[in-house]
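Posting this for the archive.
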Amino acid sequence: MSLSTRVWLILDRVALVALLVASFGVIWKIGLFRDTPPPSLSVAGTSTFVPPKPSEFIAGRISPSVFQKAAMTGSSQAKAVIVEFSDYQCPFCARFARDLYPELRREFIDTGKVRYVIMNFPLEMSHPEAMAAALAVECARSQGKFWQMRDALFLNQHALKNADVTAYAKSVGIDLATFQSCTDRQLASAIVEAQREEASRLGVSATPTFLVGSVHADGTIDLSTRIVGAQSLEVFRSAIAEIVGRTRIH
């Protein structure tokens, strides 16, 4: 066999090995990333993920004692309610607050059809500053500045260190001495922990998660639909329509 023939055989084998290595790399990559969550929600404590349905029927109740201590807006006479479980470091929660919440507010909250409730569900394993942010927004709520602080935190998710959060509090007109005392003593921690425990009891494991239901006179919420992730407005319309129709709210 001539020298040139041997060289071509060697090159051919090298090319074959390279092709096999590249093919293995593609297969490995597909297998590794096939369970990665889609860009619609943040998931707590899991390395595998099954994409949720846009909405699903559920049965359950939220305790009045937890519900009544949460931030809320909308008519107190509304019988339909949306409960949002949120994390201030969750980018999909920020996207929802920016893009979809204003539409929900105009169509359902401002018209008196829906009461909107926000509860904290900080996912500390993936979002280490989420708990401090939750405490900060609850301390802001004690001064009547919940919504302003919420907007500031979502707008500045990239910077949620203590000094940053204090600067946002000042920018929205919060008394800093009272705010600092509240966060230092963790006066809001009982509220946040109760909401997080309620979320876990109801099977919430991702943010944002929305529970849709109806409110009774005693403050108990009967749940009927769970919506997981940054879904479309139509998904919320469908869930709300069922409550609105059933309770004859117009």
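The chain has two domains: 1-34, 42-247. The CA atoms of residues 139 and 178 lie 9 Å apart.
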